[in-house]
Amino acid sequence: MGRPSRSMRLAAIQMCSGKDVDRNLDRALALVNRAADEGADVVALPENFALMGSDRERAQFVQDLDGPVLKELGRVAKERSVLLLAGTVLERSRDEADPRPYNTSVLLDRQGSPIAVYRKMHLFDVSLTDGVSYRESESVRPGDEPVVAFVEGVGFGLSICYDLRFPELYRLLAFRGAQVVFVPSAFTVETGKDHWMSLLRARAIENQVYIVAPAQFGTHESGRVTYGHSMIVDPWGTVLAQAPQKESVLWADADFGYQEEIRSRVPVGKHVRKRIFSLLHADLEGEAK
Fold first, then answer.
1. Which one of 16, 91, 120, 136 is the catalytic residue?
2. What is the Cα gyration radius of the chain?
3. pLDDT grade, residue 3 (50/70/90)?
4. What is the reported pLDDT for 287?
5. Which residue, 22, 83, 174, 212, shows the most beta carbons closer than 10 Å to its own?
């Protein structure tokens, strides 16, 4: 039934998902089982684990949160008694005025039941120096609520890919009790080679949390190339595990006593000046007017 809450074995799965949902799901389940065989208590899948395709192809796979993919993941989570993060799925919107789906991450408990649902807040609308542009907001609607779930005495914060560039989100997750933060991703090669490790380590160090970052890697059938290098980082910023450029399961043990020691010796959370947040809020409100 896993380790006591003072310690948990964390696992991150790296995939190169394609257009065949059934094949992707089969590979994901096999990798979850491999992680469970290694004694994992917590297993995290990458962004778009069930389908990496064009916007049109992905739009055909929009589903509700009680859809077949999450049901199958829930079955395996229960069979293997693991906490399982369904990296992201495209969740159907109930808003007739805005039918764009959410890019949604779901945390399942050891019984396979959803205990946390996070809808990606920051959408990847960028133009890169290689001439490639991405406009995630054209096909995905943003969420608006940060999420922390408490399971077995541990706080789990949820985030997705481009969220990584917004430190205020991670500070809020830490304030709300996150000890472990998930970052399922499909980073581009151009941004990944320069920023992926730096951002993951920075978010871990700033907030003294464990970061679990499962990622997509390689060349996908759609032609997109993703960076990979899935990682698990500890609250001091030490990279505990990093995936090679192939389908992988990586794991590391989270020691929450060690985390408490770091937070006690360097009490960043207690030193935060709340006035800065008030000023930031005022500035953002001013820009919105």
1. 120
2. 18
3. very low
4. 76
5. 212
